[in-house]
Amino acid sequence: MTMNFNKTLCNKFNHKRIYRLMKSANLQAVIRRKRKRYIQSTPQITAENILNRKFSEATPNKKWLTDVTEFKLTNGTKAYLSGILDLGDNSIVSYVLGKSNNNQLVFDTFDLAIKNNPTSKPLFHSDRGFQYTSKSFKLKLDSISAIQSMSRVGRCIDNGPMEGFFGIIKSEMYYLKKFHTFDELKLAIDDYIEFYNNKRLQKKLKGLTPMEYRNQTLAA
Predict the structure, then answer these.
(1) Beta partners for 68?
(2) With contact defined as beta carbons under 8 Å apart, do 133 and 151 qualify?
(3) What DSSP line would sit under 146-175, residue for residue?
């Protein structure tokens, strides 16, 4: 069953009322699956957990989180999504889908974020994956005077909002159908992130979408 809401009304929504309406329509949220156990790598560069789970931020481009997640296709191959999330508005600042989980995937994601936000000097938080602990990536951060922050070993919660987004995109899109090819998955991810940034209302953002909140905040 499909339930449509007027967007103007949703901007002043009461989440308890929405829960009641969902219950009456026999609707429920899909549950996110647990992330796989963290696999250690040998780092070239490490940083302290400067973010320290301080996930609240009122202004865009002050705190960026990043990570890579894996998708499996029915043809036996895998795809890897690298993304950067802005804690100021919960938007996905940039993302790249690749066929290999390598340095270039992460570097391209970072370069795209800076291209779209050339004056940003964010606190940049990641886990201790090999891409983020490389000397080459540290030079990229230094080139824009960004401060590097890293999760503690094996503590996924230190990067909770980024993990949360990956859980959302998988539960609301990926787990609901089978993807046979890389191009099919890429199109679905493009469509979903467009929806997430521009149409998916968020309680944290007072009923606005990430881009509505971002544009409103940066214009103030």
Answers:
(1) 82
(2) no
(3) PEEEEPPTT-GGGGHHHHHHHHHHHHHTGG
Grouping H, G, I as helix, E, B as strand and the rest as coil, residue 110 is helix
User: In the chain, where does DSSP find H-type helix?
Assistant: 7-10, 15-24, 103-116, 135-143, 160-172, 182-198, 210-219
Total domain count, the chain: 1
Residue 128 lies in a domain: yes
Q: Measured on CA atoms in the order 71, 73, 74, 76, is the torsion positive or negative?
A: negative
Residue 77 falls inside a structural domain: yes
How far apart are the C-alpha atoms of 140 and 180, rounded to whole Å?
35
pTM: 0.82
Residue 34 lies in a domain: no
Position 218 scores a pLDDT of 85
Q: Tell me the sheet residues that pair with 88.
A: none
Mean pLDDT for the chain?
A: 89
C-alpha distances in Å from residue 125, one per residue of 34, 53, 91, 112:
21, 10, 15, 17
Do the beta carbons of residue 144 and residue 47 sit within 8 Å? no
Is 8 contained in some domain? no
Per-residue pLDDT tens over the stretch 49-80: 999 999 999 999 999 999 999 999 999 999 99
Which of 171, 169, 176, 212 shows the shortest CA–CA distance to 192?
169
In angstroms, the CA 219 to CA 72 distance is 40
Give the CATH number, domain containing residue 209. Answer: 3.30.420.10
Residue 208: domain span: 63-219
Please give the pLDDT value at position 15: 64
Q: What is the DSSP code (8-state) at residue 76?
A: S
The pLDDT assigned to 19 comes to 63
